[in-house]
Design a protein that fits this description.
2 copies of one chain form a homodimer. The two termini of chain A are 36 Å apart. Chain A has 3 domains: 221 residues, Bira Bifunctional Protein, Domain 2 (BirA Bifunctional Protein, domain 2), CATH 3.30.930.10; 83 residues, no CATH class; 69 residues, Rossmann fold (3-Layer(aba) Sandwich), CATH 3.40.50. Helices cover 38% and strands 20% of the residues of chain A. The first copy, chain A, is an alpha/beta fold and 389 residues long. In chain A, the strands form 3 sheets. An 8-stranded mixed beta sheet of chain A has the order 1-5-6-11-10-9-7-8. In chain A, strands 13-12-14-15 form a 4-stranded mixed beta sheet, with helices on one face. Chain A has a 3-stranded antiparallel beta sheet with strand order 2-4-3. Chain A has 14 helices and 15 strands. Chains A and B meet through helix 1, strand 1, strand 3, strand 4 and helix 4 of A and helix 1, strand 1, strand 3, strand 4 and helix 4 of B.
Chain lengths: 389, 389
């Protein structure tokens, strides 16, 4: 878990605000769910491996004492590991107050009790959009178009979205000679393609399901034609029009989560070693809490990775420093108000004994202009602004 | 803990963004600390009663098993109960990379394991500014002026800030005949003034410290002159100038937290039954982690209470709905882009069998205009926008 210093925080906040603004322009609406959810819900089998990484929150007071005495579960709450499980719970709780087709924006911290390592954090921000209640391809189109527009808005223009469909993947796996019940296990192996290559995947599939499978897998993986977009995905290419050049069909794309039922996406960027976002259709999950099924599809941007792709933030308005001589507080308060009203950012500093050291430090912190304020200054027009350094 | 539906979330986000923007204009800088902190730090005696309300996070893996077997503490992390303890820890960790006088903005969720009751939440947002490294009254002036400006920016114009000083309060308590070592206990009783009145406070002080104290307390509390601003606070009134009319000296103001060492503030508003913010100087706290003392003063706005004082948010840009006939997706994607570029918010909907029901529902959700898009529409100029309802 990390502290964010002012410069980093500014960059992150601007990035998130721009993404959210871009989503709002497309009719998506922000919602918020609590950081804590019932532990039972977080470990109900929807979250795959992430369920093992839940930070558990202890019961309180007598409930804790009792649970400890009776050897029962000591925790009743957990920190959410993603924003999708909370969203589906939110939709089940609140659907009567929401539009029939609900288009949600969520940004907020999620938590995973991973061993600290480069690029993995125990607290990180997710930035998700989801559409619940639309089973048509329009939902996919809106998510992909909105994601590309959001990335463009923050200056990330050369992202590619890999697209696949879980049913296609399943039928490809069956065509290799692997039974439907082994499909999930085969996907876990195929998901390693980036790391172990075609030979490696074919070998592992062979070891698990027999030598014949190794050959059929090898043949399939070497013959893949990403230009041959299947009919079920063609409307996405057609619908995105000129932006479709940012799509790439990838019949081997798996996406880890068990809950996906249809289209799946993963966003890549040449400047990032790993994916900068992803998502897919999860039509069965809302029904788990709601009782009746509701179609749903979502996409998530990885803020931690995207933030590294864009240049540092610059100040948006002119920043100046007023350095106060003794007894100049009241005057400085008025001047500050006056300068802010004219669109400036105004930092106040007491005049220290070592003015030079202060100016150096302010220069290092990005300030370029200062003026001295004395108790007799009566108007901002009297200020004599000088360059720092 | 609560879900926030789109309308509420929008209002909260706008409020927070406006407050932060107003602080940034005054040279404050946003930072962020993790939601989780070491449990030991959260329960080290700095947080008063809030320390009893920490949500504890269980150790993981073998560490947990071992702790359970050996009857040791089962938790190692906790959810922060305020933003002040994390800020002082942040400053101690990062002070070498920060300006000599550090002016921080923090907004984020804090957590308290309270029994759910009206107006108290287990997760809520705090919005704090703090100045570390300035022991002069300029720091107080900046906080008070920035808070009043932020409230004004969100349309809350008639707030009053009650001001007192812990040392004044202590000397007043000693003047009643209560020994310095009983000062803290006396403060807890004086803090009930709003609830039990002068008679009640005098009586409780008498019961605790002797009958003579009841009389001296009664005399003190009935003779209080809020116009008689003490010398130590006068520079605040002088420095704020015309805005000083929003200040009120209150020699009975206590503020609960044990860590305050100097000025204390509480923000009131006629529309709110309880305070909408508060803070004070806590010069001893940073030193606890840093080793050497650093003067510090902060003020916090209560977002949950302020949000009730302002009217609901209206859409900032024109929102329209495009309703798509069959096969109009690709066309709609282009039209949406075109309309967004002209400054609109554009929601897409498939044309359902029951168009009337959809339009009614859109109207209830605040949309006022729609147009039908067919596969042959080729430009936004062709769209025939109609009023909803």
């Amino acid at each position: 878990m990390r502290d964010f210093l002012p410069q980093d925080k500014l960059k992150r906040e601007r990035l998130i605000a721009t993404v959210v603004e871009s989503y709002i322009a497309r009719g998506f609406q922000q919602i918020e769910t609590p950081v804590l959810e019932d532990l039972g819900r977080l470990t109900s089998g929807q979250g795959g491996d992430n369920e093992k990484l839940v930070f558990k929150v202890q019961k309180r007071g007598e409930e804790f004492t009792q649970a400890l005495e009776q050897g029962e579960e000591l925790a009743d709450l957990g920190l959410r590991f993603d924003l999708t499980v909370p969203l589906t719970r939110f939709y089940a709780s609140n659907h009567s107050k929401l539009p029939r087709v609900f288009k949600a924006i969520q940004t907020g911290p999620v938590f995973r009790a991973e061993r600290p390592q480069k690029g993995r954090y125990r607290q990180f921000i997710q930035c998700d959009i989801d559409i619940i209640g639309d089973d048509s391809i329009l939902a996919e189109l809106e998510l992909l178009s909105a994601s590309l527009a959001a990335l463009e808005a923050i200056g990330v223009t050369d992202a590619t979205i890999r697209v696949n469909h879980r049913e296609l993947l399943r039928s490809n796996i069956e065509a290799l000679g692997i039974s439907a019940s082994d499909s999930q296990a085969a996907m876990i192996i195929i998901d390693k393609l980036d790391k172990i290559g075609i030979e490696g995947v074919a070998k592992e599939l062979g070891e698990k399901f027999g030598e014949a499978i190794q050959n059929s897998a090898q043949a399939w993986l070497t013959s893949i034609d990403v230009k041959n977009i299947p009919a079920v995905l063609q409307p996405i290419w057609d619908g995105l029009g000129v932006k479709a050049k940012s799509l790439r069909f990838d019949p081997t794309l798996v996406r880890g989560m068990g809950y996906y039922t249809g289209t799946i996406f993963e966003i890549e960027h040449p400047g990032s070693g790993s994916s900068i976002g992803g998502g897919g259709r999860y039509d069965g999950m809302v029904g788990k809490w709601l009782g009746t099924d509701a179609p749903a599809v979502g996409i998530s941007l990885g803020v931690e990775r995207i933030v590294d792709l864009i240049p540092d933030s610059k100040a948006t308005s002119e920043s100046v420093v007023l350095i106060l001589e003794e007894n100049a507080q009241a005057v400085a308060m008025q001047l500050q108000q006056q300068l802010i009203a004219s669109g400036m950012q105004v930092r106040l500093e007491q005049r220290p004994k070592n003015l030079k050291a202060l100016l150096e430090q302010l220069g290092e912190n990005g300030y370029a202009k200062f003026a001295i304020v004395s108790a007799t200054t009566s108007d901002a027009a009297e200020l004599d602004f000088k360059q720092i350094g």
